[in-house]
Amino acid sequence: MKIAGLQKTSLIDYPEKISTVVFTYGCNLRCPYCHNSGLVKNNNKNIDFISLDLLFEFLRRRKKLIDGVCITGGEPTLQTGLEPFIRKIKKMGFKIKLDTNGTKPDLINKLVKENLIDYIAMDIKAPFSRYGLLAGSSKYNNQIKESINILLNSNIDYEFRTTVIPGYHTENDLIKIAELIKGAGRYFIQNFKPHNTLDSAFKSKKGFPPHVLEDFKSKISPYISNVGIRN
Ligand code: SF4
């Protein structure tokens, strides 16, 4: 496990829970608007990785203060040792939320089947035809589709979510995404924020105005009953 960062307390990363957020290093996608660019590049020499001993000691001290641990990235499912890492945290009595881009369905399936995860947030970057542009690669489309089906057919608490960017995501894209995840329990439209982006050209872009997000929501509500907006 390569742990590149820690947010001691978060009130927003794990729905309705107080959590500590663990940031893993490395990602197999290259979304140009990614906010965690320092975690995505393979050769970032400026990271002081946090040892597992230190992390577990920290969590032991937080036991009465937080409900859960949110594991994010980068892409956590690329980490060798993720499963035993999660098992250990679960044994300490914490709930686990996993953020994922969905490119490792076998691991997701195993974690779900063995009840090691309490909540999964999976990104749907775009319709599959636009993953090359909006996620830097379309070579994992089949795996992502598999992960979607795993979540749709599971009893786990989950959400799908899409970060939407003016000039890149259209109403038609949102409808195609909604068709892909039709019947999902929960879907969030997340507005783009120009902060620390992987492609510096995105730093000058702005998010959608609220009324456009509401329009997106009303267009996809026939496919998914619970659609939220994160602005
Ligand atoms: S936003 Fe894209 S590039 Fe950034 S961590 Fe998530 S999947 Fe990887």
From TrEMBL:
Its cofactor is [4Fe-4S] cluster. CDD domains: Radical_SAM. It comes from Halothermothrix orenii (strain H 168 / OCM 544 / DSM 9562). Signal peptide: none annotated. This is Anaerobic ribonucleoside-triphosphate reductase activating protein. Keywords: 4Fe-4S, Iron, Iron-sulfur, Metal-binding, Oxidoreductase, S-adenosyl-L-methionine. InterPro entries: Aldolase_TIM, Elp3/MiaA/NifB-like_rSAM, NrdG2, Organic_radical-activating, Radical_activat_CS, rSAM, rSAM_sf. Residues 13-230 form the Radical SAM core domain. One of its GO terms (molecular function) is oxidoreductase activity. Belongs to the organic radical-activating enzymes family. Pfam families: Radical_SAM.
